[in-house]
Design goal:
Length: 404
């Protein structure tokens, strides 16, 4: 590592931290209060509605937090220089992980009460020939222990990686990048196995008779699909406010837009692969998942998932679209909302097979999660520079150009 590279970041002006307005803080608190009140009301009046929307939002926002560290991690591993101006935005999503730990405890509470997963009824499991062989795995203590261990490992890796990144803001040393490059391979192995198991446990086991070996990859595709979209939205917000002026240019938006375009295709590829293989095999224990979602009120959302692919694909296909803030903002919001609906489509049919149940109280619970996420991400960006100013490749990244 040359001395020029080691100190190149000093040539870039520090954009400072995010100035969070009082209105934004108040909005987060209001959303949080609405969410708490809505969840409390649903717990009393309709526990199935309460726990289904809680699990939907828990998994959605936990995925965004894990997506943030995955985005940073694979770019450290590959040594991608262009990403330095926007990497800190993705890193900020990891500030939600302590909140995700609390909502995971909430899932454990609902599970122990027998309100979330049907396999918590031991008599039902032991009387079912298909489920009784899984009885050892489908037990509340084992479920809690393994998910805590997985989440704890992911959290410790994240804390170390993000800690090194923040430390580098002060040291301006390549040593922190080298440390993260050494840690990332281990993290990615834990992430791949751990997130797959979390997907199996928290989502797929809602219907313990159904299984799909590709389900973890499907959930990962959705995780990164929405993480890229939210990273773009925060980048555009900071760029519009002028805080990223002279740091993020159209070429950065172009490359981030290409990621969004690519993972829209990847999500569709994995989703179609899962559907085609299950439908073609025509095994009753596997096709039950899609049959339940191709009838009643769920049919509309199943068709919408085609739009989840088609709209971003068609809008982002032209080169100019990936450099147009207006179109990128529109697609970004669409992708985030579409991924939330996708997770609702995975969760709620197990509670309400006749169709989706999304009323004002479900929206209220969702706003509560939005408020929590906004609060912790804004707090992170308010305490730290919005750009990784110590990254040794930052000056090269600021002058980034793309030709495709």
């Amino acid at each position: 590592m040359s001395a020029a590279h080691a100190h190149s970041a000093e040539a870039v002006k520090n954009p400072g931290s995010l100035q969070v307005s009082g209105g934004a803080k108040t909005l987060s608190l209001v959303f949080g209060a609405i969410g708490l009140a809505s969840f409390g009301y649903l717990l009393v009046t309709s526990p199935a509605r309460a726990w289904s929307i809680f699990l939907t939002n828990h998994f959605f926002f936990m995925s965004l937090a894990l997506g943030g560290i995955f985005f940073a991690a694979f770019n450290w591993l590959t040594g991608a220089m262009w990403v330095a101006p926007v990497r800190r935005i993705a890193e900020s999503f990891t500030a939600y992980l302590p909140v995700a730990a609390l909502t995971l405890v909430g899932v454990f509470v609902g599970t122990a009460m027998g309100k979330v997963y049907i396999w918590t009824d031991r008599n039902l499991v032991m009387a079912d020939q298909a489920l009784s062989p899984k009885a050892g795995y489908l037990s509340v203590p084992f479920f809690v222990v393994r998910d805590l261990l997985i989440f704890g490992a992911l959290f410790l890796f994240t804390r170390k990686l993000i800690g090194n990144s923040l430390k580098q803001d002060k040291t301006k040393s390549y040593a922190e990048t080298a440390k993260n490059k050494a840690l990332v391979p281990g993290f990615l192995i834990v992430f791949a196995l751990g997130f797959t198991l979390l997907s199996f446990d928290q989502i797929m086991s809602l219907d313990p008779h159904w299984f799909s070996t590709i389900f973890g990859v499907y959930c990962f595709a959705g995780l990164f699909y929405s993480t890229l979209a939210l990273t773009m939205l925060y980048t555009l917000k900071l760029q519009r406010s002028g805080q990223l002026k002279g740091i993020v240019n159209d070429n950065h938006l172009h490359d981030l837009g290409k990621y969004m375009f690519a993972f829209t295709i990847f999500w569709a590829y994995i989703g179609f692969s899962q559907f085609m293989l299950i439908w073609y095999a025509n095994l009753p224990e596997e096709t039950r998942f899609f049959i339940a979602r191709f009838h009643g009120g769920w049919q509309a959302i199943s068709w919408f998932l085609l739009v989840k692919f088609a709209l971003p694909f068609l809008v982002l296909l032209p080169r100019g679209a990936k450099r147009d803030p207006m179109r990128l903002r529109f697609v970004g919001w669409f992708m985030v909302i579409a991924q939330w609906l996708d997770i609702l489509w995975l969760v709620q049919p197990n509670f309400f097979p006749e169709g989706p149940v999304v009323g004002p109280f479900e929206i209220g619970v969702t706003l509560g999660f939005v408020g929590l996420f906004m609060a912790v991400v804004n707090r992170f960006l308010g305490k730290n520079p919005v750009v990784a100013i110590g990254d040794p490749y930052l000056s090269e990244a600021v002058n980034h150009h793309t030709v495709a």
